[in-house]
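[job 4417] fold queue: 2 targets
>>> target A
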Amino acid sequence: MRGRWRTVVHDDPINLMSYVEWVFSQYFGMDARTANRVMMRVHTQGRATVSRGKREQMELDAQAMHTYGLWATIEEEQ
């Protein structure tokens, strides 16, 4: 579906796992279990999708992750 994008957070050697969980809870409103699951995906697979939607919103989400010190990119869904 064209026009659908996703924000992806990538693993980094700097941020603590607990901090990444906290960011996901604070910014995306994830519950503790979901934030932990997504953080573990970032940690073990090197990346995880944290949001999906229109490009403009995904750009905002990626920029927000940058302000928290996380490495994030956007990708168009195929």
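>>> target B
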Amino acid sequence: MRGPARASYRPVTQRLEVTFLPGLGEIVADEIVERLAPARPPRPVPGREDALLVDHAGRLERALSLRTAVAVFLVLTFDVPRPKSLTSGEHLPRIADAMATSVRLGAARTFRFEAAGHDSSVFQRLAAELAHATGLVHDDAEGEVVVRFRRTPRNAPQPGATRAPTDQAGWDVLVRLGGRPLSARPWRVADFPGAVNATIAAAIVRLVGTQADDRVANLMCGSGTLLIERLLAGPAATAVGVDIDPDAVRATQENLVAAGCAGRATVTRADVTAAGGSWRDAGPFDLVLADPPWGALHGSHVTNPALHADLLRVAHEVGAPGAHLVVLTHEIKVMERCIREADAHWRVRAELRVFAKGHHPRIYVLEHV
């Protein structure tokens, strides 16, 4: 005799907002599709150039595995005219549950609001009620569970439009998942002035791809961000980091240990532009990564033209035929002039501009000729 039929499990679809550095949108969308397999492609948040909406039916932990994203927020939409209405017993539990989910995913038991007028009496009351409902402490400055509020956009303005969208109704509450932005890598135990943003490094790795037999060199490696993100993305036959600064070498070594990659790479103190050097013995290299100094914290605008030219020369000397060179630089005019002068050695395969904290660096992917 058959027993009772089991109800089929249907995962709950939740709306996520994935934020990223402007310029990396296509790369982030590709990673979302690859890792989360949403039922429909990620779509831009109306009026934003740094966020994508994703309908996610899997475990939320998986969303936190995104390496090119800055942060992931759980989006709750409420058909209410103003934030004051969110204090009702009908809506408050949904917000409290999302905050508890963030704590489950690693956030400390503190929260803060990000909203215009977050210090108003309405938001202070909402904070008190959420603190009571969740047991979390409201810390307006350092709270780890970040809760954002915004009007729910229905229609974004079209390109060239002069008026803001008027078809808006309700409010969105966005709760950041986990206690830190995804861009704040846990392996970064040794910081270094001017270190590459880790999400840019992860995007670079996705641009060039990974092969298990890659021989990788990270020239002017700083604290090792490019090298570590490459190793975390997949195995490599050889991996070398090189920097002239002993503090940079030490920082890279410490970060490699924290990332669990200490045995997979060697780090050498050397001037990469000088002739010779034992680090070259590990080549020829299939992938050369570089983030040359640009004169704000390291290096000099005066010497950067020669430095970029030397970088292209040395990378060609140590690169295998068909190798890729990826350069992240703020010296756009200098780099483009150097590329033109080295067109017999390098062919441009991709170029991508990124916007990060007031800076506009550019990623160049070159192929060894």
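[job 4417] complete. Note on B: The chain has a mean pLDDT of 91.
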